């Protein structure tokens, strides 16, 4: 299936198993062809990744925050890799001074900041299970503690320290860093809870290090490898596996990580000051970039459909003749660059002149240095991805993975126009196949294979914390069943088309895929071509957008459908009774 340089079939289709639907062929990446014999030698744990990076890059900037001078944010102030390492040792000694060591669970509850990473590395050093917690419940600080706060905490038999106080707890004490195995649990990462209560996912050192090796091989094979000059903005929650593994990748390559100030309204200002080279976003962030330009681009397209400038003048009203010609010219530039990219030209040579004089404005909005934009955590719309590929002057890579697969199972490749709208081929060191879903009409053995995506490999989780029952539900014959429905493309890439748990059966027996409908209704001003039973019969409009405060969205802006069902129960009952 597909071009040999992307993926290769390693097993033939299997017959239906007893009590289970049939599974399609198994595929794995062979990109690039010359893979390392094993993941990054001699790195076996996340502590190895950090320790070796410190040895290679002791004086290079690692963690940075903006200085606040007279109430105003200034330049980024940096701590070097060696300075961070020294603080990690202090935190580790303080933890061990209290008698906590290997296998103990250590919760980190706070916003993204240097102290978060330092605490995480201290856990990695001493074999504690790092348990990130989302900081959406209340204000959390790694700074000072008031006497009143201390008094309140002590009522519960607990002790609270400020960051500076805790650094002194282990003074004059030194503890050996224990030997750790690659199969040891590194972190218990909780799922975002879109389909029910969050589950604690046990992720081993091997899972993270294997994924880092896969990312390294893919980017190196595309001549876009990460390096110590890269700069990354940390603003997505570190309590989510997506951002966690990206930051681990930055650390492995000696790159710099700058933290935002925690205010979405100030995000663009932080980007402008930091000037990141790698920008990671969830689709909702990129949708906002797109909608800020969407009307203008559509306007350009509309103007390009006629050669009659006077007719254009009638449409645009008071716009001058010169303004119309400028709009037509920009639209032509957009179409020209898109055409060249679709012919196979890389994004940086498709239209270099107009990149500088037209599209550089968009690039400057992201700091001016961004070369790779990675989208993950939810599907990115095809039209948004296509638009951003042209105007950002950067590679747009769409990835797919779950907490249970350490965030990375597929990723699209730079300068591959035929991967638009897909999540690309599998990353190295991962096996993927589809399982048929007969009751929904998905056949993994059809000419266009469709079915539930199943994953096997060293990136797959070790199980759910204290939920062996749930683990057995999703781990079958060594395969992790993702619950997502995919479709293999002719070029060997994967397209996510549905979610197994988001399929509803109507009283007449028809199955309706709600995410399919949402994508259509979200894009179209006039909806057609839907089946009769797919049309929405009644609507309740809420003037307040879905948000995390009411528990309706996850921190990565995905809808929590069970919570929505409970929250809007009254309105739903009324709609049904009125119908």
Automatic annotation (TrEMBL):
Stretches assigned to the AMP-dependent synthetase/ligase domain: 52-137, 174-465
GO molecular function, one term: long-chain fatty acid-CoA ligase activity
Xref: PROSITE patterns: AMP_BINDING (PS00455)
UniProt-listed Pfam families: AMP-binding
Annotated protein name in UniProt: AMP-dependent synthetase/ligase domain-containing protein
Lineage, uppermost ranks: Eukaryota, Viridiplantae, Streptophyta, Embryophyta, Tracheophyta
């Amino acid at each position: 299936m597909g071009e040999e340089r992307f993926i290769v079939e390693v097993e033939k289709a299997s017959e239906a198993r007893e009590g289970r639907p049939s599974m399609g062929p198994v595929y794995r990446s062979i990109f690039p062809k010359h893979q390392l014999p094993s993941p990054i030698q001699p790195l076996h744990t996340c502590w190895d990744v950090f320790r070796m990076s410190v040895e290679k890059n002791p004086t290079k900037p690692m963690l940075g925050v903006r200085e606040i001078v007279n109430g105003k944010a200034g330049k980024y102030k940096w701590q070097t890799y060696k300075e961070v390492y020294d603080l990690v040792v202090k935190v580790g000694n303080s933890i061990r001074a209290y008698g906590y060591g290997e296998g103990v669970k250590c919760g980190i509850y706070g916003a993204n900041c240097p102290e978060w990473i330092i605490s995480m590395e201290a856990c990695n050093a001493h074999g504690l299970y790092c348990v990130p917690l989302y900081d959406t419940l209340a204000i959390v600080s790694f700074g000072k503690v008031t006497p009143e706060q201390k008094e309140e905490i002590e009522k519960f038999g607990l002790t609270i320290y400020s960051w500076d106080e805790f650094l002194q707890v282990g003074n004059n004490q030194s503890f050996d860093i224990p030997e750790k195995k690659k199969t040891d649990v590194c972190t218990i990462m909780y799922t975002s809870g879109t389909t029910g209560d969050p589950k604690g996912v046990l992720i081993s050192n091997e899972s993270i290090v294997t994924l880092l090796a896969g990312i390294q091989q893919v980017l190196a094979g595309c001549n876009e490898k990460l390096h110590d000059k890269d700069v990354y903005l940390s603003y997505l929650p570190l309590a989510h596996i997506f951002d966690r593994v990206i930051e681990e990748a930055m650390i492995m390559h000696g790159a710099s990580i700058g933290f935002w100030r925690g205010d979405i309204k100030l995000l663009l200002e932080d980007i402008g000051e930091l000037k990141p080279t790698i920008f990671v976003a969830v689709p909702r962030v990129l949708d906002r970039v797109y909608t800020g330009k969407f009307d203008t681009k559509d306007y350009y397209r509309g103007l390009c459909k006629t050669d009659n400038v006077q007719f254009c003048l009638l449409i645009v009203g008071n716009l001058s003749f010169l303004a119309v010609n400028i709009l037509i010219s920009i639209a032509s530039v957009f179409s020209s660059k898109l055409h060249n990219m679709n012919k196979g030209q890389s994004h940086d040579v498709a239209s270099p002149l107009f990149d500088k004089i037209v599209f550089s404005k968009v690039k400057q909005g992201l700091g001016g240095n961004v070369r790779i934009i990675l989208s993950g955590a939810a599907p990115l719309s095809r039209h948004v991805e296509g638009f951003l590929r042209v105007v950002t002057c950067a590679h747009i890579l769409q990835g797919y993975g779950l907490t249970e697969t350490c965030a990375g199972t597929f990723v699209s490749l730079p300068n591959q126009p035929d991967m638009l709208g897909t999540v690309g081929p599998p990353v190295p060191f991962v096996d993927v196949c589809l399982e048929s879903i007969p009751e929904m009409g998905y056949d993994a053995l059809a000419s266009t294979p469709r079915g539930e995506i199943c994953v096997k490999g060293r990136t797959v989780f070790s199980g759910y914390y204290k939920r062996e029952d749930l683990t057995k539900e999703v781990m079958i014959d060594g395969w992790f069943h993702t619950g997502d429905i995919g479709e293999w493309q002719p070029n060997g890439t994967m397209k996510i088309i549905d979610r197994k748990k988001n399929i509803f059966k109507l009283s007449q027996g028809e199955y309706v895929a709600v995410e399919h409908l949402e994508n259509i209704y979200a894009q179209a001003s006039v909806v057609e071509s839907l089946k009769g039973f797919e049309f929405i019969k009644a609507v309740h409009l809420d003037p307040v957008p879905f948000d995390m405060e009411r528990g309706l969205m996850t921190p990565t802006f995905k809808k929590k459908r069970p919570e929505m069902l409970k929250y809007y129960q009254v309105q739903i009952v009324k709609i049904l009774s009125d119908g």
